[in-house]
Amino acid sequence: MKNIFKSLLLLCSVCLFAACADDNDSNPTLTIPATFQLNTPAFAQSYTDLATSATLPFTWSQPDYGGFPAAAQYQMQFSLNQNFTISVAEAEADETGATVADYVALDQIYNGCNGAVDPAQLAKGLQQIAHWSESSVPATTTVYARLVADYANQLVYSNIVPINVAPYYVELKNAPVEIWYLVGGCIGDGTWHNNDVNDIGVSLIELNPIEGEEYDKKSGQGVISYTGYFPEGGQFKLIKTPGSWNDQLNFTNVKDASLVDDFDGDNHNIGFKKAGYYTVKVNTSKLEVTCEVYDATPKKFDGMAISGSFNDWGDTAMNASSTVDGVENHDWYVTQHLDAGVEIKIKQAGSWDFNKGGELVPDGDDLYAFGVDGGANFKITEAADYLIIFNDITGFVRFIKK
Prior knowledge:
The protein is mainly β and 402 residues long. The termini are far apart. Helix content is 11%, strand content 34%.
């Protein structure tokens, strides 16, 4: 009986071993290939005008991962000299400026074996490599394309394919600073529901860039701030996009709650425990809110005005943003058409004892400045209707094109 049992056990062991061996033989093993095929596109035979083309279609073959079913992601890269040594991102990370890029990786990620390149993005990428002046852009040039496949952080590069294009000059700009807005019962006119783009300065008060702060060149993210008066228990939160509640920050995002409390457990509205002057800061990359006491006692103004060559240096009154009872106003706004070449200042209504000027900084379509007491006139370079917003505590002013 013992011998029968031993025989059965041995037989089962042999069968189990054979089954495992068969499974190992049938299951593919991931291998990383040396390269894969990027096909030469049909448009490569002629010169493609990047200024007028809609898309640049590319196709490729999936890398052979040894029969392993790998769902790789793909990204296009372009060079003017085939070197592909230093990317634009790597060069921009070197604050000394000593690192020089010879290729650009476009942002678009592809999941299949074909994809269309945006000609405008390619034109911008070539400008980031070549740094052409407006008068030195070549009529045509050869560009070298390759593809990088990424599976499980294992990178495989395709062959290099030359294409011929007609580039154009692109003025390179950093991304505008990412702005968030205060909204709530103690903010502006106190209307929570009026939060679209037309309510900036009225029921939405923006947080501003901080002088000397560095912002991510691609995303515009960093630390922004607002300084003003908050009543005890006045409730507010922050939104990213006027007219939308999809991206918002509330008490759950506050890093240190020693000064504030959660005054609405359902919506987690922020409120200061004591009335006073405070600075609210937001780290837009970490989505963290910081609240600090503002130690100085700001001067209170009965009125603020804009004055310049457009009104013979008279006073055009600005509107007070904060109109809620018990809230001291230090934010002002007005909409005004200004022609190119206009010089302008922001001043105390009826007096030049308090006036702000300075150098306007382009920020996307807007202009802003950290106003300086008695500073040089703000100079307008493009005619437009501008929403002008101003904080008399920080001196920050923004000109928003309408």
